[in-house]
Amino acid sequence: MDELRDEVQKVFRAVFDDDQLVLVDNMTADDVPGWDSLGHLNLVIALEKHFGIRFATAEISSLKEEGQNTGSLLALIKSKTSM
Question: Which range marks the domain in which residue 67 is found?
Fold first, then answer.
């Protein structure tokens, strides 16, 4: 999962324009400046393009629910890729 985390971190850094951003599993949107509704959509689109995957509408909206974090996002991406 380290390779996957590194790749996702690259996408986060590009989307949120922060080269110092370090992903940790319990990180949420509240922990990342700019991760608002528009930032969330930009992140989803960037992740889909980067990994060549598609998120279902329900998956996209559930990522913003209580208890969801970057660990949840990594697990979802892993389920859709071979990483």
Answer: 2-80
